[in-house]
Amino acid sequence: MGQQVAELVFPREAFDPTTIFTSGQTFRFRKDEAGVWSGVAHGTRVHVRQEGSNVVFTAQDGSLDLWKQYTDADRRYGGTLFPDADDVLRAALDYGRGLRVLRQEPFETLISFIISANNNIPRITGIIDRLCRTCAGESCGADVPFPQADDVLGMTEADLREIGAGYRAKYILESARRAKDTDFAELAAAPYEEAHAELTKFSGVGPKVADCIALFGLGKAEAFPVDVWVKRILRTLYGVTGTPRQLREFAAQRFGKNAGIAQQYLFHYARAHLEQGS
DNA sequence: GCGCAGGGGGTCG
DNA sequence: CGACCCCCTGCG
User: Fold this and answer.
1) Which of A11, A56, A86, A253 has the most crowded Cβ, counting Cβ within 10 A?
2) Which of A22, A19, A62 is nearest to A40 (CA)?
3) Residue A201 catalytic?
4) Nearest nucleotide (C1') to alpha carbon of A267
5) By 3-state DSSP, what share of chain A in percent is helix, strand and coil, each rounded to 5?
6) pLDDT (tens digit per residue) in A81-132
7) pTM, entire model
């Protein structure tokens, strides 16, 4: 890390910050008055701005390879990713143009998605924000990193309830403890099924959250989180129902090795197009 | 305007 | 299968 600014340039249709940062895969990015998105990843300030027909991703520090991995820069999204997409997926891909799946830090993903369970995005965002600020100490500016496991373990269950985590406080502490004995790089290198099984051993991590961590934190593009919106879209637009496990199998058959990326587009599409009750 | 159900990218016991 | 922290929303 040599105090060197890393910059990645995307055509606008390949990187839509609003869609990416409000899709619920990360809860750490904000837009300022000028329309510039910023946040902290890998302990480094990053921001995303439009520049003509391009979108420029800038990180204050870190290698180009790191940020290419973070932004999934080497993957070609769009039609080529799902050559035999059906009409529903095609519509979702078109609607969500510019959506990408970020490869985030495993520990941040773990804690964030434990917090996400049975929760809503505004509250999730608030809890995570307060968690970061509390761990960073009282005197904290804008560039607050996501805490390390030891920082989280410096808090008590009461502290975590104080910042609004509710009954998840205990899960967060137990999982932070377990994270210290986990080699996430090894998990990322393991086959999906194995990684998924290992992730569900964390407190507060069931099958759905494990898939979110696998997809967003371990780079497992085949991980297909089954949540209420995905259930909804599979039922109303594909006529498919069943247990989450059956729905995951359907997704693997239908969408293939990148089912998780399809999930993000379908999720985004469903939230905009499907009624709450449908 | 206020109060109060209802529900939220599920998981645990 | 029911309870669960708590914030936000929608209705009466």
Assistant:
1) A56
2) A62
3) no
4) B9
5) 50, 10, 40
6) 999 899 999 999 999 999 999 999 999 999 999 999 999 989 999 999 999 9
7) 0.97
**Token digits of residue A156:** 């008590």
A142 has a pLDDT exceeding 80: no
What pLDDT does residue A277 have? 55
Does at least one atom of strand B sit less than 7 Å from the CB of A272? no
Measured CA to C1', the nucleotide nearest A224 is B9
Which protein residue's Cα is closest to nucleotide B9 at C1'? Answer: A227
What SS3 state is found at A132?
helix
| DSSP SS3 for A137 | coil
Find the Å distance, CA of residue A104 to C1' of nucleotide C9: 31
Report residue A241 as tokens.
């129902």
Q: Which nucleotide is nearest to A276 (CA to C1')?
A: B7
For residues A136 and A144, the answer to whether their CB atoms sit within 8 Å is yes
